[in-house]
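Subject line: Sequence and fold of a protein, written as structure tokens
Body of memo: The sequence and its backbone structure tokens, given next.
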Amino acid sequence: MEPHFVPIPVGRCSACDNVWYPQAAVCPRCLCEETRGDTVPGHGTIYSFSEVHRGASSRFATATPYVLALVDVPPGLRILTNIVGASPERLSIGCPVHAVAGVNVEGEAVLWFTLAEDGP
């Protein structure tokens, strides 16, 4: 069964066609204010990762341990995110992942990734 990828919301510049995540009102490359929301396919590969046992602040204390990762996503984005639903022993650099919608410890909607082989 093919996994269902959640599209990733990105910003796109009307002037230079740069794409970035997370969305912002100004292009980080050319500082143009003529930007629009867009999406890119919700899949990528793990560039790097680390298992976190002590959160950076007390608000993350109940979420430990968790996997923090840099994920490369076409068209050339590198996203700092969490990998969910897989033990760190199953992860390696280059593993295919896909985006899933989640809710963080503060109740906010977030974008996480999981191993592509696990499905949605």
About this structure: The longest strand covers residues 43-52.
